[in-house]
Amino acid sequence: MKKFINDPEKVVDEMLEGLLIAHSDQLKSVRSDNRALVRADAPVSGKVAIATGGGSGHLPLFLGYVGKGMLDGVAVGDIFASPSSQQMLDTTRSIHGGEGVLYIYGNYGGDVMNFDMAAELADLEDIRVETVVATDDVASMPQGYEHQRRGVAGMFYLYKLAAAKAEQGASLDEVKRIAEKANANVRTMGVALTPCILPAVGRPTFEIGEGEMEIGMGIHGEPGIQRGIIQTADEVANTLVSTILKDMPIEKGSDVSVLINGLGATPLEELYIFYRAVHKLLEQKGIHVYSRYIGEFATSMEMAGLSVSILRTDEELRSLLDVPFVTPFRIQN
Amino acid sequence: MKKFINDPEKVVDEMLEGLLIAHSDQLKSVRSDNRALVRADAPVSGKVAIATGGGSGHLPLFLGYVGKGMLDGVAVGDIFASPSSQQMLDTTRSIHGGEGVLYIYGNYGGDVMNFDMAAELADLEDIRVETVVATDDVASMPQGYEHQRRGVAGMFYLYKLAAAKAEQGASLDEVKRIAEKANANVRTMGVALTPCILPAVGRPTFEIGEGEMEIGMGIHGEPGIQRGIIQTADEVANTLVSTILKDMPIEKGSDVSVLINGLGATPLEELYIFYRAVHKLLEQKGIHVYSRYIGEFATSMEMAGLSVSILRTDEELRSLLDVPFVTPFRIQN
């Protein structure tokens, strides 16, 4: 196992400790196990607070999205494992600024169960909690079963847009409406070339043959919809974009935002080659790219692969895309 | 070869095309081959301009450092190959705002030869050019031969500090002085776990056995100083930090800036575990970390590995570290 770690059992603890040392001006821990982290200035009084969470192993997801103009707090679990409801509750308590809390997280069984329980516990303390579950992965379930789809990199847009709305002083209902609107208008599809290695297991989570790729694979290695020989970047881009557009038609003349997300080991050079293909495919259909994000946003440790997310926008969503944010993972100086 | 590319011969062209499409508001090309790229607002009148360049395959180096508060232009070559003197000259002409141009680049034979020639050609056009060559890799040559060392991730500090000085309206001599001061006060040492694959070659540039690592390896796979079984993150950190501090003593009570650079495939989780170790080692010696950068700054495509750079600071360098910058690779919204 080629990793820079100490004890495989302490990977998450030491990662969190390093992160808190590095970003103590922006983040603080509200539990002795460091599994609940919030903005250093939390709670922000008079603002709807937004929390997320999930398993570790996806940096910058989730911790990288805490900050001004972004999220208020996160609960993090072990590698690929849900945090507990108590960890989520502690995050919730620490970020509540009097205007309620919105949970935004990916649609995975453990997370749903624990966030729902945390919401019930918060309710007992008179903290109003609403929930929007991200279900952007088109490959995970067919049409008609959208609400059963997994949440992957497109969740970034739910965060970004809802947080921008909260930053403007909107109510919990309004912030929730924006998160739901973002979820309804974003689709993601990924492709993996290599597996990742769970530190505590020490071997790859699955196998992909030399010269093979898997289209539609999830960020924990969930099976995709098509395995085959590696195609060119242009061919793969065509498959992903056309699947997304079949699932979510976008009218000619529309503006979209595009997120090209590296899953871990894929070089930025390849993400730009991929963006080039996606941009051209959209342009050919008369779809304009209003904004784009290219880099690592939701990883699977050292997995080689990428995903494409497309957000269908209107004037409201575009104005929220323009709101700046500051997080530990976006250096300013 | 597991890469998202089309034609191995077109990797750089298509990457540059994708990059220019994505960041047309911030970057522009000044040659039909796109190998000379400058700030969209270049030339900036009345400001010393800074140019860099080198081979492709190291994103965000070099292109990611062009922008306000950072560099003015770059010339880029093929994967791991120097750009031509003509490409550098075209960059130089396009960024010259009347106050001269500073070249900052890593110490590699082809780059030195071509940048020197470009400087001579610029001189014929009455553009004053000065040069500072980055030599931060302690592992590449022993003490006494510092000027023959390679330039690696620590070059980021030369860029950042010199650019901040230029932004403040300083003269070419002053900006050069800062770049030299940064180079004299920064040391880097890296460690690799896996090789990278040149697209046009299709196989790894070298082999490292399963369970082995190589300490001191360069960002093009240049041999390191010690190959052995993989050690823990804490042990590797100790080797790198103590080698750096032996080469460049840092007094108790000093302030430093630390850069933990991922070489490509190494997950951010591991970089934070590594930062934790580096921070603790410095703290034990009474050295305070004034600022830190953790992420990918100078990669070697999909190489797994990392490097540590330590910048010894004084009040002047710290005030320059605080100057904000905006580049295509640092999203603001």
TrEMBL record, chains A, B:
Keyword Kinase listed? The answer is yes
Q: Origin, by domain of life?
A: Bacteria
> Can you name the source organism?
Cohnella kolymensis
> Which keywords has UniProt assigned to this entry?
Kinase, Transferase
Keyword Kinase among record annotations: yes
Stored InterPro entries: DhaK_dom (IPR004006), Dihydroxyacetone_Kinase (IPR050861)
Annotated PROSITE patterns: DHAK
DhaK domain residues = 7-330
Output the Gene Ontology terms for molecular function: kinase activity
Name of the protein: Dihydroxyacetone kinase
